[in-house]
């Protein structure tokens, strides 16, 4: 555990709470307004946060009546933000199931160039038949197959990113040689899922390649993270579960032959910050009141594969539920939600209210000091290298976090007061990756 | 022919001339510097141009020693430019052979949102085995098949862009309904090449969808343009050829059931502007001297499918060449180059110098007045609705065009002195497309 914790702001339209858009303060058209996202990013940068993050799936999720739906493509958002900020890290989700490695590797390398080394890629395999049916498939591929494909995808992408040596461009005007062709190479990848010749049509980017992020907590997901991820987002409801996850993933990372410090684990937290604890609870209750239960009930029915008529809002979850093995995506989230409902004996109405803010992530309503305490506690107890901050309401929730919680963490010596690095990896204390094909790099790595 | 002509600036690293990077004034690292592109775009906007354009192919083209190679992904460039300009139109090439319609439709719609209605898509099918081998194929699909797939791709994309009615978002905070689900629809496309359910995960964008641009001048290309394109880039060496092309494509557009004014034809011109005609010719000659003949000779050998040893730089093109039918991509460009070489009896050395600036596009060296005369002449003679300006050297060539040629065209009443519209289609005098699924729109269209 390093001295400083890391903070990522996970941004979602007008907030993570599904009813946030119904508050008087919220602009229900903000989700297609790039200036809105730029301002959020500038707020995060003002707070010296490590990074901002946008989730994504190539499908319209759920009923468009429920909340602002449809999103600007996140690498487009990152690019617009990149040229209007200077330090904040920029992470976006993209799917390994529904992209070509060549195109995606190039797009993230382009964002890394445009941001001068601040790009990060949250690697997801994308569950769900709805997404599959936007790409010529009838249903989502099997979970295990998706992860095998993801591993090969990352392998191809890193080869493409390394297909140019860092010093390939010689720019010799006199001799008329722009790049040394011997330092630009085909990768000739021949795998189970991909055949890609290369080289990439872009020189190696400032970070070498984007920070690799991962957010799946299933068995397959954890194994994948241990091999590839440099930062991990995870949903954890209790300190005990979070510590178990942290210890387990660090051990898996060591087992994969990596330094446990080379992977940063960031549980999600949905802070609802009030002037007093009571005020925070009122805000939370107001948001819960604004949830339309029918949309939420329908989603629960789909998640638990139960007929919607069997879901009584004033009863607990039925005893007979599918197991994680029956679920094709968000496996660990399924288990987390079942455990939460059982542990606290929640009615469906109460469960819906608990899920409204963070969809299974830990919601915490309190004062700025209490939020800072909650963060410090988990950090000091070895449950986290930092946190994935998921404001229930935006922009006000991020403003309050940056203006009220961050200064407390800074006063306690837990968080940077100024940026000391310029790249996303720099913020997370991670090294720039060596080029797997560069002989000089290889010599250094072998020592 | 309308009263005003249209001007697009086709931007390519430090200029279209392959040796431009060797000039003392050129920054050989500019091609990965986003600030450089933003400044070029701001210059074009200062000149009140209709649009800027970036070509693209998902492959590293040619020898990286020859010139700055590798490019930032062009929708990334457009996005960075979009948030730092307010009026200039933003066009980028993307391939229908090596993208998924869902992802590409969404990305261009996102750029249209971010730019407030200034996005354009240059639709290409992408020739060449090298590109194919970055996407799991051994060779490029047949020319005809590529164009059939492109037509279906555009069909899918327009359906996705129309999958939300313009007024789908009701944002009723009181009732808790964000979008009217009845105005957001699956497209359930089932075709020869694509199966896509939809809807798009993004509301309909300011222009409805991006301006559709096309640049292929083969038979298949012209038929495709007549059906779909709203702007066409074309390479024409002589006034006669340009008039023939213009007349032919307008007739094909009428035959396809469209208004001939709904398609704007823009031949390329590579202006080399000097203080005097002699000065301009000196600049042209200096650039020609800086071409490394071996790179160019190798490219000619590939283009003409001849052994490189048979290409003598001081002789004319060999008599025995393949025909356009033997060429899989850039068919019309192949014929144009053969005709140019034969017509002017050029040695290979001379041909290489002629191709160095615009790869077959018309190069014109002269004073600003002479360039303006050349533009006015073709425009008034019915050979063009406007021009695709391809500066041989950047940024200086664009600066001179904007500062010296544009004012002459404005004085002559041929070009706007201020923007009167805010969208890319507006600049080109084109109507916002109706939504094919919207009943109110359909009623208007049927009148």
From TrEMBL, chains A, B:
It comes from the Bacteria. Transmembrane segments: none annotated. Its EC number is 1.-.-.-. CDD domains: Nitrilotriacetate_monoxgenase. Keywords: Flavoprotein, FMN, Monooxygenase, Oxidoreductase. SUPFAM superfamilies: Bacterial luciferase-like. Residues 26-382 form the Luciferase-like domain. InterPro entries: Diverse_substr_monoxygenases, Luciferase-like_dom, Luciferase-like_sf, NTA_MOA. One of its GO terms (molecular function) is oxidoreductase activity. Belongs to the NtaA/SnaA/DszA monooxygenase family. This is LLM class flavin-dependent oxidoreductase. It comes from Nocardia lasii.
